[in-house]
Amino acid sequence: MDSEDTTAYQKELDFFSNYLSVWVAVCIIAGTATGYYFPSLSDSLAELEYANVSIPIAVVLLLMMYPIMLKVKYTELIRVRKNAKPLTLTLIVNWGIKPFTMALIAWVFMHFVFSDFISETLQDEYGRDDHFRLGTMYCNDPCLDISCKSKP
Q: What mean pLDDT comes out for the span 82-93?
């Protein structure tokens, strides 16, 4: 295959996808500014939760995932057993490795990179040994009391 053949298979990105990093930066700045200049809006959104799940975040995540879910070929799920290696590798990396590396990176940032901006109490709170962690989240489910140590 020469270079002319490979360019025929390349798909052009649409305007939104082409400038995705710009849109992410704009949304981060807009969200930060909204929280800073309109703290009551931030507080109101924080109160909208059910079973410790933020409803606004859940809605936005579903809106983000919906287009991707439309592209999934569900008929291909039947064939996953024939070639389970990619799925197995994905599960191991996403559930066995990433949560711990992200917790380590967060710990490094809390204790070293942003240590001048974060109080020592909050730094110590993050790295406490008396919390059962799943990735970087605290375990607060009463069904898991056997695994969870008591919270202070």
A: 90
Q: Are 78 and 90 in contact (CB under 8 A)?
A: no
Cα–Cα distance measured from residue 7 to residue 60, given in angstroms and rounded to the nearest whole number: 35
What pLDDT score was predicted for residue 94?
A: 94
Contacts of 147 by beta carbon, 8 Å cutoff, 6+ apart: 132, 139
DSSP states of 113-132: ITTTTS-HHHHHHHT-TTS-
- The amino acid occupying position 84 is A
Q: What is the CA radius of gyration of the chain?
A: 21
Q: What are phi and psi of 13, to 5 degrees?
A: -80, 145
pLDDT tens-digit map of 17-36 = 889 899 999 999 998 999 89
pTM of the model: 0.48
pLDDT class for 5, splitting at 50, 70, 90?
A: low
φ, ψ of residue 114 to 5 degrees: the values are: -110, 25
Beta-bridge partners for 50: 53
